[in-house]
Structure formats: structure tokens, C-alpha cells
Amino acid sequence: MKNMVNLSPGLFGKQPKEVYCDADFTVTAFMFPGDIAALALQNNRGILTLLPYQDLMVWDAAFDGHSLKSKDSCVKPRRDDNSGCFAFHEGLPENYGPIADVWLEVEAEMLTVRASSADSATRGCRTQPAVQLSANSAQFSIEMVISNLADTAQPLSYMCHMNYACDPDAVFRQNLPGCALNIRNNPLPVICSDDLSLYVDQAEFFMLAPRGRKYVTRFSTGQFNYAVLRRPNTSPQAAAFIQPASCSPDSAAKQMSAVLNAGEMREFRVTTGVL
User: What is 77-91 written as a DSSP string?
Assistant: First the structure.
């Protein structure tokens, strides 16, 4: 049985308010300074902090006593600014509306926060982000559904941008040959892969940090054909783990090289967290 809880803007105040609780999860609504609405999703492994009205941005992800995100000088979120967050949706079409509806879905030890952008005659695109957390798990999923409501195709260069804290001594592994990532003899700080769907149906990337901590990112290569890798030793405080992308950054710079056709809907899902 699926339980649904609508979250109206009035639930978010300066004092934290518990909006859902069961044996597996506690969900708390609150506001950061500047009247920025936030949700804290807690299970027995940690807490996800989301900004529901800022495209359901993942502000922080902390499990087993450690935050996954890189350090940043911005310690509090700011409106219309993704600086300092753990994950955000990058490369969305420009003509989508602000988030209008937010709700919880709870079913079979699974908690999902969903949101939807506003529809209007002047908007040609609808976005529907979601974040899903399982009971007893330190992994979670970041989802995005993008629908083109216009009569013409729109450029699409979507990336699930994650700001992982990367230890300079971490070891990286993946279920792909090294040649797919173009790492060898590549001096660039940002590296884009080949078309990953040529190699595997589901890509898996692992970051093995010192002191035994292990992290994973998984995604379908039918949804994300490419991945962007930022070298950890380029700038350890701003380094990123793998970044799933719907197209190569090089091709995205070319007009209409990656498109969302009229009436088309695309779904994206990334699972990430602690092994």
C-alpha cells in the first residue's frame, strides 16, 4: 500500500516540523535562513537534506557519520544558487517553470520525495524531479523526468551534477575498460567518456577511499550515454566523482546536437552513496 503526503509551502517554517514518521523514516520540514524551504529525510544510516522548491536539489547527504559532499565556503544555501550543494540538475531546458507541487510517497520500506514544475500556456517544458531513499540503506536515487510540451524540438544536455568529496588517495574503479573513459595520455582536468552504451547497459563507478570507506554511482547507459570525470588531484576541495551526462559536453556546445523532440519525455535515474 502506498501512502502519499502532500507538502504545501505552509508546512515549512523557521521551527522544524515533523511531517512524516514510521519505523524506518522520519521526514522533517524546516527553513534555512533566507526563507529557503528544506526537507530532512532520515533513516537509521543517515540524513538527506533536500531543497524542494529549488528543483529538489540535494543540499547534503550524510551517512554513517560522514558527509558525502565536498567542502565549500558557502555553508548555507542561497536562492537560485547551487553553490555548496551535494547534487543538482544541470543542463535543463530554459523554458520550464518553477516547482509548484511537492509530495511524499511511502511504500514497502521505500521513501520517495517527488516534485513537479508548474504548467502554463507559456511554458514549453515540464520537469519532475524525485529523490528516493530505502530503509537501512546509505544509497539513494536521484531522478528527473523532462517532458517537452512544445511543438518543436528543444536542446537537451542534462547532467546529474554531484559534488562528492574526493580524497586525493582514493582509488577509482569501474565496470568499463579504461579506454572508454579516455583517461590514458589525457592531460585535461575534465575528461568525457566515449558513448558508454557501446560497452555496458548499466555503468558502475566506485570510489575506494582510505580508511575503508567505499562509494558507488550506478546509472543506465540508455539514459546517460556519457560520463564526465574530474581529476581529484586538480583541486581536491572541488573535485567530483563521476558525473552522468545525456550527451558529450563537446557535442552539447553544437546547436541542437542533443535534442528533446516535440512531445517527447525522457527519464533519468542515478543511484549513488555508500557501499
Answer: -BTTB-TT-SEEEES
